[in-house]
Amino acid sequence: MNNRAGWWKGAVVIGLCSLLGGGFLQAGERYTNNNNGTITDHKSKLVALADGNCLQKMTWDEAMAEVGRLASGKCGLTDGSAAGNWRLPTKRELGILVDWRKSGKFVALNNDFYWSGTVNEEDSKLAWLIFLATVYIGNDLKSDKNMYWPVRDAH
Q1: C-alpha closest to that of 47 among 60, 33, 27
Q2: Above 60 in pLDDT, residue 21?
Q3: Full-prediction pTM beyond 0.85?
Q4: End-to-end CA distance of the chain
Q5: Which of 21, 54, 80, 151 has the highest CB neighbour number within 10 Å of its CB?
Q6: Domain limits for position 115
Q7: Hey, is 139 helix, strand or coil?
Q8: How far apart, in Å, are the Cα atoms of 13 and each of 6, 20, 30, 64?
Q9: pLDDT per residue as tens digits for the range 25-49
């Protein structure tokens, strides 16, 4: 057997796992409501605010600053988090927000644009975002006001 054949078998296994919901999680086990204002997504290994709209539309710079200040006591959080624990999702993580919206586990989600923490590599005046209504991922001027959904890495 050559390396190419082994690669294909690995790709098929990974592809099947993705189609079946990714990994070995059983139905209903992907999300845990932590009853502290957060929900853990075990597939993405992220913790998110249970209320994706508790924060108002802001420019990208304002949203980055507000996320840096987010802590227990704000947005219904009783999780013991401190300023600096939260961040905006990366460009790569934006698609996960669509899964969260479809899950029915999160409250008050708008068909709106949500910032990522990733700046456009070719133009620093732009940042990546997702439009949840159509799953469009693109760029917007950082000076425009959009929604944002803070996340942190699960431990």
Answers
A1: 33
A2: no
A3: no
A4: 40
A5: 151
A6: 29-153
A7: strand
A8: 11, 11, 20, 38
A9: 455 689 999 999 999 999 999 999 9
